[in-house]
Design a protein that fits this description.
The complex is a heterodimer of chains A (67) and B (782).
Chain A: E1 2-6, E2 9-13, H1 19-25, E3 34-37, E4 40-41, E5 57-61
Parallel strand pairs in A: 1-5
Antiparallel strand pairs in A: 1-2, 3-4, 3-5
Chain B: H1 16-21, E1 36-42, E2 48-54, H2 56-60, E3 64-68, H3 70-73, E4 94-95, E5 101-107, H4 110-117, E6 121-126, H5 133-137, E7 152-160, H6 163-169, E8 172-179, E9 192-197, E10 203-207, H7 212-223, E11 230-233, H8 249-261, E12 265-268, H9 271-277, E13 283-292, E14 298-310, H10 316-325, E15 336-344, H11 359-376, H12 380-387, H13 406-417, H14 419-422, E16 430-440, E17 455-461, E18 468-472, H15 481-493, E19 500-504, H16 520-547, E20 554-557, E21 560-563, H17 571-579, E22 593-594, H18 595-606, E23 610-615, E24 635-646, E25 653-663, H19 670-689, E26 720-725, H20 747-759, H21 770-781
Parallel strand pairs in B: 1-12, 10-11, 14-15, 18-19, 25-26
Antiparallel strand pairs in B: 1-5, 2-4, 2-6, 3-5, 7-15, 8-13, 9-10, 9-12, 13-14, 16-24, 17-18, 17-23, 20-21, 21-22, 24-25
Helix pairs in contact in B: 7-8, 11-20, 15-16, 16-18, 17-18, 19-20
The chains are: A mainly beta (67), B alpha+beta (782).
Chain lengths: 67, 782
């Protein structure tokens, strides 16, 4: 198990967790979803191969929040 | 003929009497016993370390009650999106733009508060500053926020379909770049507030805001108060346009000072502070490459965009997203790639403004599409119609056009402007141009991650049955939402508008995310309709029971109860009602049973009749057509034709006529829809022709008043023809959707295309000053 920060809160994830599996596990359905890892944009094609390390910070952002 | 009794008509707004007689209360009218006045200390330099702050002399000034800095406020980060909380109430380690907030003073009068600011000593160590996207991205540029060392504070990269394959299919590929300028919202009423922390520990904030709910949450979070201890109330608001759609430093500082002093504290922005602190429209630089077949079929769009973001993020993540995503429609575009970057620098932060993110992108693309049409030998309208989406289409980036009267809008402006007799037939110096656009009708998600309802509403019947009071926390900011919701409630209940009283803009009245993203008519409208229908249902249930008939055999319209069986005997109920009103002169009589009587009978049976409604976009899935998780439940759309005359010697533009058609689904109040269309035309015209916030070499705004920053007034507007198209939006209450922002989308490109038609020069930078037009004409001659 690894500990990461997801959307500002501590989460425990399995060792082989990727961005893609994290999206699936947290049921993120927004097709416009922006994912950032440690403050950097993650390109959608890279979701399956982007693994997570202890202490990583991940943001799932729904950018269609208006204005 | 409309099938409705209240909505879909021209109705005088509920706020008209107050506003025309001077009874309307705006924030600066508010006075409280013992009220103090606050002022903010701003950084005079664009980028510097703070080495020390000494407030001792200010505190000694007679009349000063409190001085607060980051030491008092704490360092709780806040902002708009929780993913970018990059501000604190006051700067503590460094300042990032001229205007950044250092301290606040509360005093017995505004003059003393401002005098005290001069006595606060701040020691700075200046840092190198950058004021452009290019300089901020240059190698070795100073870092504005440590977390983002390359100064890119937000970025979006998306590809839908296969763009390279799309370009291979294309017979013509066109690339252009386009730049707008930072635009101030130029609302007439500057932001202001009165904070009142009472002896029971309750904080009431009266504020000129578009979003009482978000302000309530931000104030509670930053000051460490339970949400239930914070109440936010708005009075009439003199315009917002997106800039008042987030909590601001004035609100936070006034609340802190009220808590510290135990007295009400008023803080009103000066016009100079509006230009410094309020988050205006970004400057965008768009590079667009479009592929198209010989027959005019669009094949691909590649889009790169840089946003001049200023010192903080504000709404920037959404802005950079919308700048790309809103080109997904309204044309059938199978392949689209977008790379957007929002760049920090040492100017005041930018944020959301009418047509959020999409206005410059739309201007850039609609002008480019006109260029493509010309090269293909096609008429601009013909080219657009060939690619136009229709109801039921879904864009390549999954925007579901659950209703889309775009083709009807184009046909309407074509006919309304006499396009066929003018296009290509006007003398040199005169021109006509067309453009289209669309916008979301409410955001799919709240600003903070939550499963919250986007709005709730309550309708309560008076015990005499004669009046229904609608409570909503929505924000009437001059756009007419109170009237819209009153009309929706009246229609759903079956009474006239005069029997509805609307109470709004108070967080005690429920949850409503507020007036932004063109959301209220659709979203709050749903909640209001549901609440009113609940009340009606409760009344009819009692009535059916009392009369011994089925509820399905009763209906209400125009304040009267209709029975399928005309022989229903309601005389006993009428007698009961009249006997409760001995001495009254307006007791019901005649052949019809009134809703007032029915409501009183229901009250006698059940007590106070209260109905509630709620709405969030996800709830629509399954119940209404095509409303899954996504950017918005619906999209409004607009087409415009603009006619101009350009002085060929000076480049000065005179707009002669604007013809605008907008699909709002169904017009609840026809007059208000037209008002929104007029406002959009005015704001778009100002941005196109002359609005630009300018800075000196040190990052200071130089045109920070209405003497130097020009906006159009009513006297500047040309004849405007507004045509309402109604497509009956399946996800909207009674078929309604937005008009507030979609209507601004085509204005700038229609002007650009008209100017080209007049002078033969394409202008790719705003504003269209005479100098820029003149230079364009001279370049064209070469």
């Amino acid at each position: 198990m690894k500990r990461i920060t997801l959307n500002g809160f501590k989460e425990k994830i399995s060792s082989d967790e990727t961005i893609a599996s994290l999206i699936k596990r947290f049921d993120e359905q927004d097709k416009s979803l922006i994912v950032e890892k440690n403050g950097k944009f993650v390109y959608p094609p890279d979701y399956p191969k982007t693994t997570l390390q202890e202490g990583d910070s991940v943001e799932f952002i729904n950018p269609n929040f208006g204005g | 003929m409309t099938e409705y009794n209240v909505i879909n008509t021209r109705t005088n707004r509920l706020d008209t009497p107050d506003k025309t007689t001077g009874r309307a209360i705006f924030i600066d009218d508010v006075k409280k016993t013992g009220m103090l006045h606050a002022a903010l200390l701003h950084s005079p330099v664009a980028h510097a370390k703070i080495l020390g702050i000494d407030t001792s002399e200010a505190e000694k000034l007679p009349g000063v009650t409190a001085v607060v800095t980051a030491k008092d406020a704490g360092l709780t980060p806040y902002g708009v999106s929780p993913a970018r909380y990059d501000e604190t109430m006051f700067c503590h380690d460094k300042v990032r733009y001229i205007g950044d907030e250092i301290a606040a003073v509360a005093a017995e009068d505004p003059e003393t508060a401002r005098e005290a600011l001069k006595l606060i000593k701040v020691e700075y160590e200046e840092l190198p500053a950058v004021f452009t996207v290019e300089d901020a991205l240059a190698k070795g540029a100073p870092t504005i926020h440590e977390k983002y060392p390359n100064n890119i504070g937000a970025e979006v990269h998306q590809e839908f379909g296969d763009v390279e394959a799309g370009f291979k299919e294309a017979d013509l590929i066109k690339t252009t770049t386009f730049k707008n300028k930072r635009q101030d919202a130029a609302f007439i009423e500057p932001p202001g507030c009165v904070a009142d922390y009472d002896t029971s520990g309750n904080l009431t904030l009266y504020s000129s805001t578009q979003v009482p709910h978000y302000v309530q949450r931000t104030v509670a979070m930053v000051l460490g108060l339970p949400v239930g201890k914070v109440r936010v109330v708005k009075f009439y608001v003199g315009g917002g346009f997106g800039i008042k759609a987030a909590a601001n430093i004035g609100e936070l500082a006034a609340c802190l000072l009220s808590i510290k002093t135990g007295k009400p504290v008023k803080l009103i922005y000066s016009r100079q502070e509006v230009f410094q602190l309020c988050r205006a429209r970004h400057q965008f630089t768009h590079k667009l490459t479009t592929g198209v077949k010989k027959d005019g079929t669009l094949t691909a769009l590649k889009h790169e965009c840089y946003l001049d973001g200023g010192a903080y993020t504000s709404f920037g993540i959404a802005t950079v997203y919308y700048a790309g995503s809103l080109l997904g429609g309204p044309y059938r575009l199978p392949n689209m790639k977008y790379d957007g970057y929002r760049v920090y620098n040492n100017k005041p932060a930018c944020g959301a403004q009418r047509g959020h993110g999409g206005v410059a992108a739309r201007a850039a693309w609609e002008q480019q599409l006109d260029m493509i049409a010309e090269e293909l030998g096609m008429d601009g309208i013909e080219f657009r119609l060939k690619n136009m989406m229709v109801t039921g289409d879904v864009t390549c980036n999954d925007l579901n056009m659950s209703s889309l009267g775009m083709k009807e809008c184009l046909d309407a402006v074509k006919d309304g402007s006499d396009w066929k007799n003018k296009k290509g037939k006007l003398p040199k110096g005169k021109g006509i141009g067309v453009a289209c656009g669309f916008f979301v009708s409410g955001a799919g998600y709240p600003i903070y991650r939550s499963e919250t309802y986007h709005c709730t509403a309550t309708v309560k019947l008076a015990e005499d049955g004669g009046t229904a009071v609608l409570y909503t926390a929505s924000a009437e900011i001059g756009q007419g939402s109170d009237t819209t919701f009153g009309m929706i409630a009246a229609e759903a209940l079956g009474v006239s508008l005069e029997h509805i009283r609307v109470e709004s803009g108070d967080t005690d009245m429920g949850v409503d995310l507020g007036a932004y993203s063109s959301r209220q008519t659709l979203m709050t409208g749903h909640a209001v309709k549901e609440a009113a229908e609940s009340v009606k249902q409760q009344v009819l249930e009692v009535l059916a029971k009392e009369l011994g008939i089925a509820i399905e055999d009763i209906n209400v319209a125009n304040g009267l109860v209709y029975f399928n069986d005309r022989n229903v005997d309601f005389s006993a109920l009428r007698t009961k009602y009249i006997k409760e009103h001995r001495g009254w002169k307006d007791n019901p009589e005649g052949d019809d049973f009134t809703f007032r009587e029915a409501s009183r009978i229901a009250y006698l049976s059940k007590g106070t009749i209260v109905g509630t409604g709620k709405y969030k976009p996800h709830d629509l899935g399954g119940k209404f057509k095509g409303a899954a998780v996504g950017t918005s439940p619906a999209y409004g759309c607009s087409a415009q034709v603009v006619e101009v005359e350009v002085d060929m010697d000076t480049g000065k533009i005179n707009i002669e006529k604007m013809t605008d058609a907008h699909d709002c689904g169904l017009a609840i109040n026809v007059t208000s829809v037209e008002g929104q269309m007029h406002g959009s035309l005015s704001m778009g015209m100002g941005e196109a022709l002359f609005e630009e916030v300018k800075f000196d070499d040190n990052g200071k705004v130089v045109n920070d008043d209405f003497a130097e920053y020009k906006i159009p007034t009513a006297l500047d507007m040309p004849p405007m023809e507004t045509i309402i198209v109604e497509s009956n939006e399946p996800n909207g209450p009674f078929g309604a959707k937005e008009v507030g922002e979609g209507a601004i989308m085509p204005t700038i490109p229609a002007i650009l295309n008209a100017v080209y038609d007049a002078v033969g020069a394409r202008i790719h930078e705003l504003p269209l000053t005479p100098e820029r037009i003149y230079r364009g004409m001279k370049e064209n001659e070469k």
